[in-house]
Amino acid sequence: MLLVCDSGSTKADWCLVDKYNNRKFISTCGMNPYNISQEAICQEIESVLISNINPKDVD
């Protein structure tokens, strides 16, 4: 599976695509490193993104 992200300062849109072209869309807060700390980015990824996907499935 592939994980693609389009992120700006206010929101990030994620798309998980499997080998059959099935897609799962997830939204998180924006992750601009000039406006948000590394700790906040990690927390958002762990609490929202990781809870919605299995990281072992991502290539």
Strand-helix topology:
Blueprint (H helix, E strand, L loop, with lengths): L1 E6 L3 E7 L5 E7 L8 H12 L10
Antiparallel strand pairs: 1-2, 2-3
What is the compact description of this entry?
By secondary structure, the chain is an alpha+beta fold.
Question: Which characteristics define this entry?
Answer:
single chain, 59 residues, alpha+beta, 3-stranded antiparallel sheet, 1 helix, 3 strands
Description:
The protein is of the alpha+beta class and about 60 residues long. The protein is built from one helix and three strands; from the N terminus they run E-E-E-H. The protein has one helix at about 40-50; strands spanning about 1-5, 10-15, 25-30. It is about 20% helix and about 35% strand. The chain has a three-stranded antiparallel beta sheet, with helices on one face. A hairpin with a 3-residue loop joins strand 1 and strand 2. It has one domain (about 1-55).
What fraction, in percent, of the residue positions are helical? 10-25%
Mean pLDDT, nearest integer?
90
Oligomer category:
single chain
Number of strands: 3
Strand-residue proportion: 25-35%
CA-atom Rg in angstroms = 12 Å
By DSSP (H or I, 4+ residues per run), the number of helices equals 1
- Count of individual domains: 1
Helix/sheet category: alpha+beta
Shape: elongated
Major sheet: arrangement of strands = 1-2-3
- Low-pLDDT segments: none
Summarize the helix and strand pattern as letters.
EEEH
How many strands, what sense, and barrel or not for the largest sheet?
3 strands, antiparallel
- The CA-CA distance between the termini, in Å, is 5 Å
